[in-house]
Amino acid sequence: MRRCLHYLVGIISLASLGLSANSQPIKKESLVKDGIYVKETIKEREPVPYPSLREGDVMWSKRIWRVIDLREKLNLPLYFPTEEMQDRKSLIQTLYSAINKGELTAYDGEDDEFTSTISPTECEGKIGGGMVQIGQNEDGSPKMQYSDPKWGEIKELLVKEEWYFDKKYSTMQCRIIGICPIRVYLKTTTTADQAQDDVAEGEITKVKTFWIYFPEVRKVLANTSVYSEHNDAQRISFDDLFFLRRFASYIIREGNVYNNRTISTYTLGGIPNMVESDRIREDIFNEEHDLWEF
C-alpha cells in the first residue's frame, strides 16, 4: 500500500512539472507570433543532392575521423543555445528532438559501424537527462526526479567521413558518413560528510553519446536554421554548414592496417598529435595534386 502511495505521489510530482511517467517535458510554445513575419524558407528546404557516384569513378579514397571542438569561435553556432529557445536550436537539440520523434535512428556511441541501435531514453541518459535517483524513500524504494538534458556539456563532435578522388570531375570530394556528439563533463561524487553536496573528483570524462547516420539526418538538418550574428533574415541551415564545411576541426584518426588506430596511440600527445594530424591533411592534398591529369 505504501509503495502505491509513493508511486501516486511521484505521478503527481511529474504532472506538476509538465511530465508524465513515460514522457519528456512539455516544451512551452509562444502564445503570440514572436516576430514580424512567418519564417518558412528553411522549413521548406531540401538537402542539396550529392552528384552521382560510381565505383569506377573513384580512383582513390581514404577514411578519416575528425573532431569538431564546439568551443572554438567558428563552431559556436553548432554549440549554442544551451537552453530551450523558440526560434533557435543547437545541433544536439536538433538531433535529440528528431530521435525522440522517431525521425532518426540512434546508434551505439561506442560502435562507429552502425551495428546496434539505442532507444531515445538511452540517448537522453547519455546526455545527462531523464529520471535520475536522488535518494531513497522511507520504505527503501528509489526516489526519482527528472533531470533536463545537459546541452551545455556536449562540447565536441566526432565526425566520420570519406575523402575520395572522382575522376569524372577530376576533384577531391568528401562525404560525411556519421556524426557523434561527445559529452565532456567532470565526474562528481557525494560524500557522507557533505550530504547532498557534490564534490569534484577525478579527471574530465568524455562520453560518446550516440552515432547518427549522416545521409539519414540531412533532411532534418536542412530544415533547421543556424544563427547568423550578421543578419537574422538570412540564415543558412545545418546541412549547408556541413556541406560547405564551415567549421574548424582536426584529424584524430585515419584508416590504417593497425585496426584503424587513433593518432594518440602512436604519438606522444600534444604537439606531436597536431603534427601528425597536419601530415594526414597534407597527404590528402598531395593525393589530389598527384592524381590530376595535365
Mind explaining what this structure looks like?
With 294 residues, this protein is an alpha+beta fold. It has a domain at 65-251. It is built from seven helices and ten strands. The chain has helices at 2-16, 76-79, 91-100, 120-126, 214-222, 238-243, 271-291; strands at 58-69, 106-108, 117-118, 130-136, 142-147, 154-166, 171-190, 198-208, 210-213, 250-254. Strands 1, 2, 3, 6, 7, 8, 9 and 10 form an eight-stranded antiparallel sheet that branches. It has a two-stranded antiparallel ribbon with strand order 4-5. The chain starts with a helix and ends with a helix. The model is unreliable at 1-23 (pLDDT under 50). It comes from Williamwhitmania taraxaci. InterPro entries: Gliding_motility_assoc_GldN (IPR019847). This is Protein involved in gliding motility GldN.
Overall pLDDT level: 86
Helix and strand pattern? HEHHEEHEEEEEEHHEH
Q: Tell me the span between the first and last alpha carbons.
A: 84 Å
Instruction: Work out the helicity level.
Output: 10-25%
Protein name: Protein involved in gliding motility GldN
Pfam families: GldN
Organism: Williamwhitmania taraxaci
Name the descriptors.
294 residues; alpha+beta; 28% strand; disordered N terminus
Q: What would a concise description of this structure say?
A:
This protein has 294 residues and is of the alpha+beta class. Helices cover 24% and strands 28% of the residues. Mean pLDDT is 86; it is low at 1-23.
